[in-house]
Specification:
FAD/NAD(P)-binding domain; 596 residues; Jelly Rolls; five-stranded parallel sheet; single chain; globular; six-stranded antiparallel sheet
């Protein structure tokens, strides 16, 4: 499914000709990426999508492309990469061949764990059309952003802001993005909440733009991450809420099954059937244009081609999980744990801090007929005979980054999960050879599954006290049944890996009476025309523990879709729905999407 969509989306263009003195090659634009993977999760942090050699310890097939040099000169070569796990030696080694000649430098092992430019020697270009080939040497997450050829030995900028401007110049990106259209609503994020909001709005015949920065839909429930959709919808205050969520689910309960369990095709086909939805895959919102306290338009960048589009609408919805749209728009938000003094929540710490629930990158192994080996990984997290798990697959408690910034440190958190997963598997295969001889590592997510990051503030900031005291708000609509499920570092894991924990424990009361979330948690307190749905709604860290599961988030999307309809019907804003049209919104919650 992913390969078909990627082949549809990628605009293969050659040559990359820019000038006699300079030539810029984006790695993600290679004509044939071979066994490499396009990773676009960290554009905000490092400036671009890049190619990742995600081979589970076996070198991936080379990536190749043809570039055209208008003028034949001696060119200096610079490569942007990083040594992602530099101690004691980087695992992500790769080489580059140009015109069938391999450069003498091996990249990805220089000890610099930041994205940086590495000099790759000089080369005489003697013909106009030149083949470039990326040769992965390990299968352990080597990565490359771009290759820069210049008759000058001066490297491109290292400063991210200056580099972004330089990249735009090299790629000749226009300062005027192409107009994608004017819509009734623009929904940013194609996870479960975004899909439900888009489908619901479409059922009301609204013109919807759905923007997703990945090649497939579903977010945490996609085959990229493989988390099941949880949350009981049989106890809803409005029983017909959840009708869309149910159509998107395969019913799979496995955290770590084969890709077919997660319904990528099902979700894509559901959106394609909705004639009122315009789907824009691989488009990441990176800029917001405002008119005082309202969003006027958003500008996206295609993560492969870098082509920019601008979208106009009177209403916008943030379903990004990370609250990216809200952040760009200047919405008020929180991240980390509120203090007891601030919220009076029994589960809140006495002093606020930046701790959040962890991030997971699932993996699993399979039993095979023949034996297999796996290399010793000195750069990975080292396990000890007295402390390891006898697992052949990860589970919910494989999570890290508790004390890290889930936005700024996103790539480092994912990479630490790689080091844990590979270190664990290396331990089993080399120190438990008899027991694991027939087991082989089959799959590992390179896209991270996040539980928590930014939470955007609305007119109500829902807390544990609201839930424990069963506060009944007049705009109560979405029912949560999961229980307050908070994850913390496992104290035993902390003994062995202090402040770098990778296994968590759950404080989860499963004997939880249903609680009904108010509508006023679903729109921004200071961005007048922005809704939010999903784990970025207006709740405290503790309250997030119950609302964050996907069936509940999907129902948020459905309610937002209904509220968007009323905003367009009355030409009003999200807050106006509560103040002037609440009864009509609740009436819509009583009906099935297909009855309306």
């Amino acid at each position: 499914m992913m390969n078909r969509i990627l082949s549809f989306i990628i605009i293969l263009f050659c040559p990359y000709a820019l000038s006699a003195a300079q030539l810029w090659v984006e790695a993600e634009q290679f004509e044939n990426i071979g066994g490499w993977t396009i990773d676009s999760q960290f554009i905000d942090q490092m400036g671009s999508a890049y190619l990742l050699a995600h081979g589970l310890g076996a070198p991936v097939k080379p990536a190749t492309t043809i570039v055209k040099f208008n003028d034949l000169h001696k060119y200096h070569i610079w490569v942007r990469t990083k040594d992602w796990a530099p101690y004691p030696k980087g695992p992500g080694k790769f080489s580059i061949s140009i015109a069938n000649k391999t450069l003498p430098i091996t990249f990805g092992q220089d000890g610099n764990s930041e994205w940086h430019w590495v000099y790759g020697e000089s080369i005489d270009i003697k013909q106009h059309n030149i083949k470039i080939q990326l040769n992965d040497l390990t299968g352990f997450e080597g990565r490359i952003d771009a290759i820069y050829f210049s008759t000058s030995k001066i490297p491109p900028p290292s400063n991210l802001k200056k580099l972004n401007l330089f990249r735009r110049k090299m790629l000749k990106i226009s300062d005027s993005p192409q107009k994608a259209g004017t819509f009734d609503v623009v929904i940013v994020g194609g996870g479960i909440s975004g899909l439900c909001a888009a489908i619901q709005a479409s059922k009301y015949k609204l013109k919807v733009a759905l923007l997703q920065d990945r090649p497939i839909l579903g977010g945490n429930n996609s085959s990229e991450i493989r988390i099941p959709m949880n949350g009981d919808m049989s106890k809803n205050l409005y029983p017909k809420l959840g009708s869309i969520v149910k159509t998107l689910s395969t019913g799979a309960k496995s955290e770590n099954g084969p890709d077919t369990l997660y319904g990528d095709n099902l979700k894509f086909n559901m959106i394609q059937k909705e004639k009122n939805i315009s789907l824009f895959l691989m488009n990441r919102v990176y800029r917001v244009l405002k008119d005082t306290n309202s969003i006027k338009s958003v500008i996206t960048k295609n993560v492969i081609t870098n082509k920019e589009l601008i979208f106009y609408a009177p209403i916008f919805v943030d379903c990004t999980g990370d609250g990216n749209l809200g952040y760009l728009a200047g919405a008020k938000y929180k991240m980390g744990r509120e203090s007891f003094k601030e919220t009076k929540e029994p589960k809140a710490p006495q002093i606020s801090d930046n701790m959040t629930m962890g991030t997971t990158n699932h993996w699993f192994a399979e039993l095979e007929k023949g034996t297999s080996e796996f290399p010793i990984c000195p750069w990975a997290v080292q396990f000890q005979p007295q402390y390891y798990a006898n697992n052949m697959a990860s589970s919910w408690y494989w999570e890290s980054g508790f004390y890290d910034d889930k936005i700024k440190d996103a790539e480092a958190i994912r990479d630490y999960n790689f080091r844990v997963n590979y270190g664990y598997w290396s331990f089993l295969k080399n120190y438990k050879k008899k027991e694991t001889a027939l087991w082989k590592l089959k799959w590992m997510a390179y896209v991270s599954g996040k539980r928590e990051s930014r939470r955007l503030l609305g007119d109500i900031f829902l807390t544990e006290l609201d839930i424990d005291n069963r506060v009944k708000y007049p705009d109560a609509c979405i029912t949560t049944t999961w229980g307050i499920d908070l994850h913390y570092p496992d104290p035993k894991n902390s003994q062995y890996y202090p402040h770098k924990e990778f296994w968590g424990i759950a404080d989860h009361n499963r004997n939880f009476p249903p609680y009904h979330i108010p509508y006023r948690c679903l729109y921004s307190i200071n961005i007048a025309n922005m809704f939010m749905a999903g784990r970025d709604i207006s709740v405290s860290h503790v309250a997030l523990g119950t609302v964050r599961v996907m069936n509940t988030c999907g129902m948020m999307g459905e309610v937002v879709g209904k509220a968007v309809f009323l905003c367009r019907k009355y030409n009003c804003l999200p807050r106006d729905i509560y103040e002037k049209h609440l009864n009509e919104l609740l009436s819509l919650c009583e009906s099935n999407v297909y009855d309306e």
